[in-house]
């Protein structure tokens, strides 16, 4: 098995083990709901904004922020304002709004989300 095959296996396994079902609704014109699997990035791994400098986000806070990873093949774009319905591990389903992007790779988008009150 080559590197790409191993990488695909790891990504698939991570989604199967840590993934949470979600519904993603992007802003106009792409308002059709998308069923996806998201992974919550551990808050301990996310750095507070004040420690790493400005990011593409309208929020400025000192506490660790919530980061969600989405598979590009399921949700190709995740602009600010996208609403995601998903549960945190052990929690109930609630709505989250994308406030910015933390990381973009060929396979994954990590977005900063805030709860919809």
Can you give a write-up of this model?
With 117 residues, the chain is of the alpha+beta class. It has one domain (3-115): Thrombin, subunit H (Beta Barrel). 17% of the residues lie in helices and 40% in strands. It has two helices and seven strands; from the N terminus they run αββαβββββ. It has a six-stranded antiparallel barrel with strand order 1-2-4-7-6-5. A hairpin with a 5-residue loop joins β5 (83-87) and β6 (93-104). The longest helix is centred in the N-terminal third of the chain and has 16 residues, at 3-18. The N and C termini lie far apart (47 Å). Residues 44-53 have low confidence and may be disordered.
Radius of gyration: 14 Å
Helix content: 10-25%
- The spatial strand order of the largest sheet comes to 1-2-4-7-6-5
Indicate the overall shape: globular
Number of domains: 1
Give the N-to-C terminal Cα separation: 47 Å
Percent strand? 35-45%
List the secondary-structure elements in sequence, H or E: HEEHEEEEE
The secondary structure category is alpha+beta
* The level-1 CATH class: Mainly Beta
Return the CATH architecture.
Beta Barrel
Name the poorly predicted regions: 44-53
Summarize the structure.
The protein has about 120 residues and is an alpha+beta fold.
Give the topology, please:
Blueprint (H helix, E strand, L loop, with lengths): L2 H16 L1 E6 L8 E8 L7 H4 L3 E2 L8 E6 L11 E5 L5 E12 L3 E8 L2
Antiparallel strand pairs: 1-2, 1-5, 2-4, 3-6, 4-7, 5-6, 6-7
Comma- or semicolon-separated keywords:
117 residues; alpha+beta; Thrombin, subunit H; six-stranded antiparallel beta barrel; 2 helices
């Amino acid at each position: 098995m080559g590197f790409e095959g191993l990488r695909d296996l790891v990504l698939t396994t991570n989604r199967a083990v840590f993934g949470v079902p979600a519904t993603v609704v992007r802003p106009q014109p792409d308002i059709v709901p998308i069923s996806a699997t998201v992974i919550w990035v551990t808050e301990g791994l996310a750095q507070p904004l004040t420690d790493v400098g400005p990011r593409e986000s309208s929020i400025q806070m000192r506490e660790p922020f919530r980061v969600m990873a989405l598979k590009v093949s399921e949700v190709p774009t995740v602009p600010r304002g996208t609403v995601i319905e998903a549960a945190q591990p052990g929690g109930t389903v609630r709505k989250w709004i994308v406030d910015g992007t933390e990381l973009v790779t060929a396979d994954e988008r990590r977005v900063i989300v805030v709860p919809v009150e």
